[in-house]
Amino acid sequence: MSNEPILLFLHGVGDGDQDDNWKIHFAEALTRLGYPDLDTVRVIAPKYAHALKGWDDKELLPSVTIKQLGREAAKKNRRDFERRMAAIEFRLGRHDPGNGQPGGDALIGAAVGLPFFKQAHNYLRNPQIRAQVLNRILAKLPESGRLVIVGHSLGSVIAADLVRRLPVGLEVAGLVTIGSPLANGSFDVDKLRETLKEPPTNLAWWVNFWNASDPVAAHRGLSSVFPWMIDFRIDTKTVVLKAHAAVEYLNDEAVAAAIGFALFGSRSKELARIDNGVDISLDTAERLTLLALRYAYLIKLKLEGDQQDRFAGALRQVQATAVDDIRRRNASDHRGMPSAVARLAFDLSDPQATVPEPLPSSYFAKDEAVVPLTILAVENLIRPFEILIPKNKRQDAMEDLTAEMGLGSQYGADVFAAAKDAQEALSGGRGVNWVKWVALGAGAAAIVVATGGLALAAAPGLVGAAVITSALASFGPGGMIGGLLMAGTLVTAGGGGIALGLAGPGTTAETLEAVVVRQLAAEILRERQHLEPDPAVWRNLVETEIEVRREHERLDEFSDESAGSLKELKRKIDAIERALKYLRDNGLEPGVPPSTFDETD
User: Fold this and answer.
1) Out of 33, 38, 382, 506, which could bridge 314 as a Cys pair, Cβ 3.0 to 4.6 Å?
2) Helix or strand or coil: residue 597?
3) Tens digit of pLDDT for each residue in 168-193?
4) pTM for this structure?
């Protein structure tokens, strides 16, 4: 198979037999983006405007060469396709399906019957003309190679109709549709929506661009019809009559970037940003990210089969996103990219790109590792993806991690033993549900919102208030980095802010239990590792209990006994009491210096 890229441009109504004006504008956009000259690409732009007007000799419709798969094979193909689509979205920006234009469908449906759209009507309604057009295009194509298809307007309909009829030796490296009416029911030629319920196996990815003022696109993309592909909005800010033109789309840099990537891969100036970094010390977010990625990598090694494949795919995206988030944050702060982080960068949009392995971490002393490892043991490291990993796999990976860190594998075993003891202490003999304790992220964010940031201001531990506030602004609480920082901060936080947040109605009892069990687990881990206890844990729990009881007394005065809010508060009190009892029973209650008492008391 030749590696020379082939660009197949399928024109729409009215722009088929014109000159190569589209090619000039597209070549200019490629040059602006730093891609190679379009002259290095074999361009095929079949002229079929005449064939759309009528047919001469009767022709058979080309056969479907890309067959539908069985259920399991189709699931695997869909998963692989979605991984590639996620990588493309990472490269091009956020998916934007649009919300449609009132009356847009009716307008486009009616327009198909007008004389100007006669060619489109013929393709949709006349099987002989459709067969003639498809055969004419196929006659121009080689039997093998890397093909990139760009379909404009009616050409996008033809492209969708053609893709399953291509020679089996042709690999469709990318399909880019522009100004497409495929979301309109009138263009469902030969039940395309049904036949393309799943992505064809010869198609690497498909993206669609719709121009905000294009009446044919009707202010929406195609993913409402083909949910496995993604849409992007552009706004050329041209008058309505020009907004649908192919040259308007092809001169847009977002469109050119998609086609350019399909043809050439990564741009040289993109790769230049993936450098060796600089020799500077790591900050909290960077240290925690490296530790989390290494732990996730070790978990992946413990998995097998389909679960390992899915976890690896999720981790691939998480690593690329985390490194890119740090790069953007550091650029904004005029901070260099530490070499330990820079070496993990790779081109996510290239499915063949090798993912650099996170190296063993040695950035934490024994006492400093308590909170980060306690958090890692129970947090979802591949958020927003969710894959249930058996506890024994996570523990084995944790033991490997702590051994690498020079802390010894027993440290890793103690992390999980401490978590188990803490969970059992709070469960009150009801049994331990490991999964229950794995989701703190959303609840942690709710605490910060509920306190207007007071919870952060009260955080003296893993990171300070200014650091976590800045980190959340850069990373957000929903991703891996922001989620870990938030969880770690709440475990170490104390004072009125965190107590008010946990007591308030915006925080569920389940979230309070998740915070308390992590605080308790960290203290148990210190005891198991013969480290100095943290007296702030006891103080935090007492302060939180006081605030929760105050809230309970305030509501209990007038509320029904069966009120849900009172039940939630009672559950919170019960969790805190159990944690304090465990600390007291196991000699972890801090001693009270005599000087704190007045002799007259």
Assistant:
1) 382
2) coil
3) 999 999 999 999 999 988 898 889 99
4) 0.66
